[in-house]
């Protein structure tokens, strides 16, 4: 249940380079650069609802660890993915990047990799 709660981004590294690398338009990158995104996570055993709240939209994905689920990107692209958990780290492959989520030092750490480009977001519980 470590992931459950509301989290607010307090720092991020590699945002611009990562967003450009996965094809996000420049105007969208600009709007999101300093936005303190909120992530809401509910957990019931291996069942999760992972919601990200942006200035103009809210994207929510429901999944069960180890089972293929229907997912959606912030750009509205729908895809199927399996979220796995190993050693307290949650991993999932999106259409053009790989993401790892973990709780470390009471913070939610989200690391996204697209090729050699890495973006890291650190969120505090609110």
UniProtKB/TrEMBL annotation:
Q: Which GO terms describe its cellular component?
A: cytoplasm
Annotated compartments: Cytoplasm
> Where is it predominantly found?
cytoplasm
- Pfam families under this entry? Lipocalin_7
> What InterPro entries does UniProt report for this protein, alphabetically?
Calycin, Fatty_acid-bd, ILBP
Q: Which UniProt keywords apply?
A: Cytoplasm, Lipid-binding, Transport
Q: Which GO terms describe its molecular function?
A: lipid binding
Q: What family is this? A: Belongs to the calycin superfamily. Fatty-acid binding protein (FABP) family.
Name listed for the protein in its UniProt record: Fatty acid-binding protein, liver-type
Which species is the source of this protein?
Oryzias melastigma
